[in-house]
């Protein structure tokens, strides 16, 4: 009787490498070495959102999803492995040549992930389509971002077991769905992991739910689908590796991973919340608070670097790839002002310019000067401005001249 | 059939509730289990002639959780 022989290359590793390489390929497309390509990619502001979605997926999404959906995959795999083992024992009894069929433990994970990718892409398209019927103003987007931020922070605190109340930040899927999914997970054919992967749309994790809200906010079928595709693709390598490791190592590392996920979600939650506050024009966002505390020097006579003459009642703001310059400027109170927004090969989201208090929103051209009128402001007023993602901020302080 | 509530303090996510509910497929004589991560408890409807509290606690323990009678 021949001994059990392992294949020279473990198919699990091959598939895992394939998924990782695919993820790297997408990352390379998103972050090409050619700087011009970066500009083109960021031109619409959409590509940068996809990159953020992908990075979110690869950093926290995979682990977070695994916490919710991993059980399904594990139970499916366990059954598969059990079946393999039973067939091997059967072969042993028949004194036939035995080969360890490790392909069976990798293939279901692969099918599960591909199916999940397709399902979430379709879900993203659906959400984007729904979002197209909802016109989200910067303020409503800000409210949505704050809600998402609070949801993420609540989930992180739940994971740290801070207080029982935070358990309610975890959405419990309806019993009939979990029961149906669980019973389907007991199947052993190829269709089972495919079907299970598809069903994961009904049990999204906290980070996924946040991404779904973002897809809704895009208001576009294509963008919603692309966003969820990028995010789910990002989750796949981590999901695959951890699913494989946990299948192999049991729950030993689970506690460590969950703490890691909790910290990551907490940080992302605060960033999202802060972006929402920025987008709302709140003086209590971290950036605006630090600016107020640091009492950074202001520029009272902002001059555009594009050579425009500065006239009375006109102020200039340079909109750059890295943010706004000057970030803080003073302007005369009780005077109607013309704000000149100067872009010069600006491709970042900074050109998606918002003044929340004035309910002003404009997508600026990559290069050029756009104007808007600022009505007279009382001395001491601070007008906050930001990009549409709440990332880049600045303020105009109105003073008596 | 007897309906009973057990506290399960070591559930950490909704997936734990799903795992515990899987017992209704594994245990003959158990009609229904509704586990809640929010409440950290499970409500089990079972045939008391086939299952005792101790046996149910042991079955939950096999899933990796601690069940406590209320």
Describe the structure.
Chain A has eleven helices and nine strands. Chain A has 401 residues and is α+β, with helices and mostly antiparallel strands. In chain A, the strands form two sheets. Chain A has a five-stranded mixed β-sheet with strand order 3-9-8-5-6, covered by helices on one side. In chain A, strands 2-1-4-7 form a four-stranded mixed β-sheet, with no helix packed on it. In chain A, strand 8 (382-387) and strand 9 (393-399) form a beta hairpin. The radius of gyration of chain A is 26 Å and the shape is elongated. Chain B is an alpha+beta fold. Chain B has one domain (2-69): Alpha-Beta Plaits (2-Layer Sandwich), CATH 3.30.70.100. Helix content of chain B is 31%, strand content 30%. Chain B has three helices and four strands. Chain B has helices at 14-21, 23-26, 53-62; strands spanning 2-7, 30-36, 41-46, 68-69. Chain B has a four-stranded antiparallel β-sheet. Chain B is globular and about 30 Å long. The mean pLDDT of chain B is 90. The chains are: A alpha+beta (401), B alpha+beta (70).
Please provide the count of β strands of chain A: 9
Alpha-carbon distance between the two ends of chain B:
18 Å
* Succession of helices and strands of chain B: EHHEEHE
**What's the domain count of chain B?**
1
* Global geometry of chain B: globular
Structural class of chain B: alpha+beta
> Any idea what the CATH architecture of chain B is?
2-Layer Sandwich
The amount of beta strand of chain A, in percent, is 5-15%
Average predicted local confidence, pLDDT of chain B: 90
- Average per-residue pLDDT of chain A, rounded, comes to 73
Largest sheet of chain B, in brief, is: 4 strands, antiparallel
Topology diagram in text:
The complex is a heterodimer of chains A (401) and B (70).
Chain A: H1 11-30, H2 35-43, H3 46-93, H4 103-131, H5 138-159, H6 175-184, H7 191-199, H8 206-218, H9 221-249, H10 254-280, H11 286-294, E1 314-320, E2 323-325, E3 328-332, E4 337-343, E5 352-355, E6 360-363, E7 368-374, E8 382-387, E9 393-399
Parallel strand pairs in A: 1-4, 3-9
Antiparallel strand pairs in A: 1-2, 4-7, 5-6, 5-8, 8-9
Helix pairs in contact in A: 1-4, 1-9, 3-4, 3-8, 3-9, 3-10, 4-7, 4-8, 4-9, 5-8, 5-10, 8-9
Chain B: E1 2-7, H1 14-21, H2 23-26, E2 30-36, E3 41-46, H3 53-62, E4 68-69
Antiparallel strand pairs in B: 1-3, 1-4, 2-3
């Amino acid at each position: 009787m021949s001994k059990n022989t392992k294949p020279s290359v473990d198919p699990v590793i091959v598939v895992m490498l394939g998924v990782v390489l695919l993820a790297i390929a997408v990352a390379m497309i998103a972050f090409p070495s050619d700087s011009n390509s970066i500009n083109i990619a960021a031109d619409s502001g959409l590509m940068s959102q996809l990159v953020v979605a992908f990075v979110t997926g690869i950093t926290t999404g995979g682990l977070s999803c695994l916490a919710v959906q991993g059980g399904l995959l594990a139970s499916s795999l366990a059954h598969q492995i059990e079946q393999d083992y039973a067939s091997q024992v059967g072969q042993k009894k028949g004194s036939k040549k035995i080969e360890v069929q490790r392909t069976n433990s990798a293939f279901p994970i692969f099918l599960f992930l591909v199916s999940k990718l397709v399902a979430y892409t379709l879900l993203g398209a659906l959400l984007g389509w729904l979002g197209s019927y909802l016109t989200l103003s910067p303020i409503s987007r800000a409210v949505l971002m704050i809600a998402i931020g609070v949801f993420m922070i609540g989930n992180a605190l739940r994971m740290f077991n801070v207080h029982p109340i935070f358990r309610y930040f975890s959405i419990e899927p309806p019993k009939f769905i979990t029961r149906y999914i669980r019973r389907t997970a007991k199947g052993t054919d190829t269709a089972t992991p495919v079907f299970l992967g598809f069903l994961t749309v009904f049990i999204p994790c906290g980070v996924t739910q946040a991404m779904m809200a973002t897809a809704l906010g895009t208001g576009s079928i294509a963008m919603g689908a692309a966003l969820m595709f990028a995010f789910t693709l990002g989750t796949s390598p981590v999901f695959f590796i951890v699913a494989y490791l946990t299948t192999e190592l049991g729950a030993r590392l689970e506690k460590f991973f969950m703490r890691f996920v909790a910290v990551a979600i907490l940080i992302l939650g605060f960033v999202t919340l802060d972006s929402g506050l920025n987008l709302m024009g709140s003086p209590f966002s971290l950036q605006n608070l630090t600016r107020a505390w640091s009492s950074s020097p202001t520029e009272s006579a902002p001059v555009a670097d594009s050579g425009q003459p500065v006239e009375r009642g006109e102020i200039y703001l340079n909109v750059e790839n890295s943010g706004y310059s000057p970030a803080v400027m003073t302007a005369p109170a009780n005077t109607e002002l013309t704000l000149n927004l100067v872009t010069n090969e600006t491709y970042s989201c900074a050109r998606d310019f918002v003044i929340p208090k004035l309910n002003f929103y404009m997508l600026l051209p990559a290069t050029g000067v756009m104007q808007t009128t600022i009505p007279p402001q009382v001395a001491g007023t601070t007008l906050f401005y930001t990009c549409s993602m709440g990332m880049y901020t600045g303020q105009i302080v109105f003073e008596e001249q | 059939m007897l309906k009973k509530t057990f506290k399960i303090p070591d559930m950490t996510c909704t997936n734990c509730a799903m795992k515990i509910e899987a017992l209704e497929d594994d245990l003959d004589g158990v009609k229904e289990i509704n586990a809640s991560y929010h409440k950290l408890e499970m409500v089990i409807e079972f045939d008391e002639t086939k299952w005792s509290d101790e046996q149910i606690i042991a079955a939950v323990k096999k899933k990796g959780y601690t069940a406590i009678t209320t």
